[in-house]
Amino acid sequence: MAEISKEVGKRVRLYRQKRGWTQEQLAFEADLHRAYVGQIERGEKAIGIENLQKIAKTLNVKMSKLLGE
């Protein structure tokens, strides 16, 4: 499971950086805590479906892209 969390985190970071956003900006736009976004990107926290959906919607990508189609 930890490997999946790391892969999802890498994709979240990639799409966030493509938008030119900081973790703080993503957290604000997705209504999440900045520290939580950092933990997700580092693969330290497993992300729930609802929060994955929030991030995907905020980054304007499909959830499947974050999961690694």
Blueprint of the fold:
Elements: H1 2-18, H2 23-30, H3 34-41, H4 49-59, H5 63-67
Describe the structure in your own words.
The chain is built from five helices and no strands. The chain has helices at 2-18, 23-30, 34-41, 49-59, 63-67. Helix 2 packs across helix 3 (34-41) and helix 2 (23-30) crosses helix 4. The longest helix is centred in the N-terminal third of the chain and has 17 residues, at 2-18. The protein is globular. It starts with a helix and ends with a helix.
SSE series = HHHHH
Q: Which percent band covers the strand fraction?
A: under 5%
**Shape estimate:** globular
Total count of helical runs of at least 4 residues: 5
Helix content: over 70%
Structural class category: mainly alpha
What oligomeric state do the depicted chains represent? Answer: single chain
**Largest sheet data:** none
| Rg on CA atoms, Å | 10 Å
Which stretches of 5+ consecutive residues score pLDDT under 50?
none
Give the number of DSSP strands.
0
Mean pLDDT equals 95
Report the end-to-end length measured between terminal Cα atoms: 17 Å
